[in-house]
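STRUCTURE:
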């Protein structure tokens, strides 16, 4: 049972990290576009 709980936790953490990474990359792209427009 403990292993299963750890597995679920790892999946949740990794999915949360990938979401944050996508948001971060999206913001970086927006900043680059703004810099190019100036």
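SEQUENCE:
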């Amino acid at each position: 049972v403990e292993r299963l709980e750890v597995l679920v936790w790892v999946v949740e953490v990794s999915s949360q990290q990938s979401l944050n990474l996508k948001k971060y990359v999206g913001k970086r792209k927006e900043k680059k576009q703004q810099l190019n427009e100036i």
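REMARK: The two ends are 56 Å apart (CA to CA).
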